[in-house]
Amino acid sequence: MGCAVARELSRFRVKAAVLEKEMDVGLGTSCRNSGVLHAGFNYAPGSLRAVLDVKGNAMMDDLCRDLKVKIKRIGKLTVALDEEDEATLQRLLEQGRANGVPGLEIIGKERMQAIQPGVEGYMALYSPSSSIISPYALTIGLAENALANGVHFHLGQQVVSVTPLAGNGWEIGTKSGERFTGTVVVNASGLFAADVCRMAGITEYSIYPCRGEYYVLDKRLDGTLRTLIYPAPKKNAPGLGIHLTPTVDGNILIGPSAEYLNDPEDHSCTYDVMAELRREGKELLSEIRMTDYIRNFAGVRPKQTPPEVGGNKDFVIEDRKELKGFVNLVGIESPGLTSAPAIAEMVRGMVEKHIPLLPDPSFNPVRPGSPFFFSELPADERAAMIADNPNYGEIICRCEKITKQEILDAIKNPLGARTLVSIKYRARASMGRCQGGFCVPRITRILRDEFGWKPEDFLKRGDSSPMFVGNVRPKGGASR
Ligand SMILES: Cc1cc2nc3c(=O)[nH]c(=O)nc-3n(C[C@H](O)[C@H](O)[C@H](O)COP(=O)(O)OP(=O)(O)OC[C@H]3O[C@@H](n4cnc5c(N)ncnc54)[C@H](O)[C@@H]3O)c2cc1C
Question: What are the structural domains, with CATH classification, of the chain?
Answer without folding.
Answer: 137-206+314-351 (3.50.50.60), 374-457 (1.10.10)
